[in-house]
Amino acid sequence: MPAEKVDSIANTVPEKIKERGRLIIGVNIPYAPNEFRDPDGKIVGFDVDLMNAIAATLGLTPEYREAAFDKIIPSIQGGTVDVGMSSFTDTREREKIVDFVTYFEAGIQWAQRPGAGIDPNNACGKRVAVQATTIEDTEELPAKSKACTDAGKPPIEILKFPEQDAVANAVVLGQADAMSADSPVTAYAIKQSNGKLEPAGDIFDAAPYGWPVQKGSPLAESLRQALEHLIRTGTYEKIAKNWGVEAGMIDKPVINGAVN
């Protein structure tokens, strides 16, 4: 799904990045179907195809730099990375230190082994796997676990893994009762599990994904305009449908669109 440079949008890119000719992108892998490696070791996914199209629109070559998820925003603040691309939920807390350009909407979805009967709203005493430092790890599960202990029930045992692949695997192997992840990620894990995983409950807490950039950087507006262009031309929809994530498409990107 090739995209071409649009001069009027490319001209808005900060001079330093324009002169370099490369857009340096921080990414944490794997988080399929958004960013992961194919069998040949190439970084692929919905986020990757979309960012490649964004970079092309801006007349830049994308350069992906792998990092731990919790190191990406500090590297943006420090100026070693231009933009983050790792299924970041745009939150008011994160907006205090970086700006976001919204590009997708995801909720949270749990998965379980078939017939396990796990209820995300009543998981006291259960073992739930998550990727460390995600919203599910830092906000969702601690709040649910506190509600359990406040009611005199056992806490949720939160099992943290550095990579998303290990999260799904823990459930399949019976090390965890369930997993919690962003809805497109859980849907993809279920699809890839060959019947070993199924949804547990509905999608909830929909919130925007965003690309983080330095606070006050004009790059945010460049990215926003590039995405508006891709939405208008239909490229965005083609990319989303190609990865089966069209349920989360948005029609208007904004800068700092956190809902909570």
From TrEMBL:
Transmembrane segments: none annotated. PROSITE patterns: SBP_BACTERIAL_3. The keyword Signal applies. It is found in: Cell envelope. Gene3D superfamilies: Periplasmic binding protein-like II. Signal peptide: none annotated. Keywords: Signal. It holds the Pfam family SBP_bac_3. SUPFAM superfamilies: Periplasmic binding protein-like II. The keyword Signal applies. Its main location: other. Residues 22-247 form the Solute-binding protein family 3/N-terminal domain. This is Bacterial extracellular solute-binding s, 3 family protein.
